[in-house]
Amino acid sequence: MAISLFPVTPDFIAEIGDIDLSRPLDPADLAAIRDAFARYAVLIFPDQHLSPEQHTGFAQHFGPLETSIGVYRADAPLRVRADLADVSNLNHNNEVWGEDSRLRMFQLGNRLWHTDSSFKHLPARASLLYARSIPPFGGHTEFADERAAYDALPPDMARRLEGLIAEHSIFTSRARLGFTNFSDTEHQALPPVPQMVVRTIPETARKSLYLASHAGRIFGLADAEGRQLIDDLVAHATERRFVHCHRWRTFDLVMWDNRCTMHRGLEFDDLRFRRDMQRATVSDIANSCEQEGVRIEAA
Ligand code: OGA
Ligand code: MN
Fold it and tell me: Which of 15, 113, 182, 277 has the highest CB neighbour number within 10 Å of its CB?
């Protein structure tokens, strides 16, 4: 039986049904998922029952997986496999974290608009977030369509952004939250990287903004001017007309294209309820500047 596709919005979010991702995939189904992913950028697969191996196995159809940046943090052992990012509010003993936990401060960064791993030279192409348990209320995830946001830019702004390169760093997004106590080892493990402000998605030739709270300055502009431009663009890209809120159900797998979307987690009572989310993250094929044929030395 072929997959079913239910658009949630005309060209941004779709649900995919009539597929069991715990089983080997029919090549025709995989092709249909790829087509849907190119068009919508966010796909929801409800009611999937996946072991970590099945979760990462499905993700690997889209490319090699990242290693979680949790491995760079010396403060706590990992709760999940290194090829899954632990997006839960649980410590390595599987208990709800404490108010003062460093992990909690670090994860607060997910509440800021971002795209995954843009602070890595080779950023993330796709993320596949799986809900093992969810709080009874709150803890939704919002997604912003940066292709639609690009299309809606005034033409003079689109021209101004041509060829611009931003500097992304995980420490920039954490500093926005006042969280700055990182060790030298942590700093050295994740140096700042350049990324295009506008990129083209090869599968559709659509242009997209490529923004995140990780972006701190723009090469060739004064620091304050670059920061202001980034903040203005993020505000534009996250206007309600470009944003969809996903309200999780247990066993949803949600897959998004990090090249042309931003997302953020919404608040929930994280000291009271368990929220166990795990993410498989597919690497992009190259840095966004390399993909646009822009020489990084210019930055
Ligand atoms: C992520 C992320 C937000 C959330 O998994 O990359 O940012 O709502 N998640 O958990
Ligand atoms: Mn994220």
Answer: 277
Count CB atoms within 10 A of the CB of residue 112.
Answer: 17
CATH number at residue 73: 3.60.130.10
Distance 226 CA to ligand 2 centre (A): 23
pTM, entire model: 0.97
Per residue in 67-76, pLDDT (tens digit) is 987 766 666 7
State which residues form the domain around 191: 4-298
Ligand 1 atom closest to 139 (CA): 8
Please count the structural domains in the chain. 1
Distance CA 145, CA 243 (A): 6
Closest atom of ligand 1 to 263 CA is 7
- pLDDT over 90 percentage in the chain: 91
